[in-house]
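This part of the workshop introduces the protein records we will be handling. A record pairs a protein's sequence with a compact description of its fold. As an example, a complete record with its sequence and its structure tokens follows.

_____
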Amino acid sequence: MKKIFIITLLTLAVFQNPSFAKTNIPQKANHIEYMNLDWWEKYNDEHLTNNLLTLYENNYDLKNAALKVKENEQAVKMQFANELPQIGLSGELYRNLRSSMQQFGNMQIPSYAQYNYYLPITLNYEIDIWGTNRLRTKSMKQRLEIIKQAERATYIALTSDFTADYFNLIRADEFLSIQNELIKTQQEIVSKTKDKYETGLCTINDLLAEQRFLTTLTEEKNRHIKTRDTLINSLRVYLSKADGDIERSSYNSIVLLKNLPDKYSTEVIENRPDYLQEEANIKRIGFDVRVAKREFLPKFILFGQIGLNAYHLDTLFNSASQMFNAGILPSIDLFAGGRKIALLKLRKFEYEEALNSYQKTILEGIKEMNTGLIEYKTASENYQESADRLKMQNQTYSLMKDKYDIGAASDLDVLYAKEAYLLVKKDEVSNKINSIITTIGLYKAAGGIDLYKINENI
């Protein structure tokens, strides 16, 4: 019997020891659907899609966002446990030593020593008459919804920022290529101008001006190199890479999105994570206000014990050692120093603050959508203008080469025309990338919705 008793106690100790608890921590992000790859594939860039998949697998911000959701899921379970009865075993085994000084009237108890075996199973359950614990659980579920929307916002922000940097890197590559061609052309101009100076066909000021422009172009090339390297380092952080190049497409292979809707309903903002977070926050605080009101009501706790109580181990399982008691404990605070009133007012103020934040979020969302739409339209128009200007400059360059072929223009005239074409080409590249980036900003402002489907449910 003693062996069984000892084994039982050790088994209970093992199960109650937290050092044996196991955790299941996710090793990657949870929601591939938040990446919205169908949208990014519309840019027709395989390298971009592959990089976004790597981002999903490796990015630490996405992993931490997933862990925060897991943490709050457990917090909801912890709160839900308060709605359930609490059952526990808290046994006692002790030796009682009593002296002969104990006396009841004229009867004196002699000195004695004995063991006491006390093994009760205790139950406590707050009868949720007013639904207070249920409201607390609902409040925690709304907090979980806020965290889920924060995770989704992290996906939208990271994919949008990464893609914007990706296209900026393509622009830096093309700028650097054009800049190298500009420097090569300017070096030829400097060489031919120097020949003209030596033959007395131009002044020293003309030569110095061309040499100064060459140094300006070289400085600009260094800035493009810095921009390219900075963007590569930034993209490595997104992809959790310590080194290595970033796989990317060439400028000539990227495409513009066409025929995007030019009008959107304000209902679009209802899909934005910040809007949904504020909506959930209002509900959460609404539950907290109701909980604060119920704090003024009495509580009723159901309690009971069933178990064994004996002074000798061999009589522990006898019927005489069995014990049972149960009851209901009502309680109410008669005076709490104004704490409950202050808590209720606090929750009401928080609710009003949440309503104001909700209204502000709506206005901010509308503003971002309108701003994004204006930027997209402006960038698209500017790109079209620069593309037309590039065509005209290309015609000028071709005409100059034709004039050179028939002896009506000098080789310097051809070089100047080529240089002018390359400068206009840089404007065309910049405006094209700007147009692409504004579609990314519009996607982000719309809460990560496919812009081609944005008006389907409106």
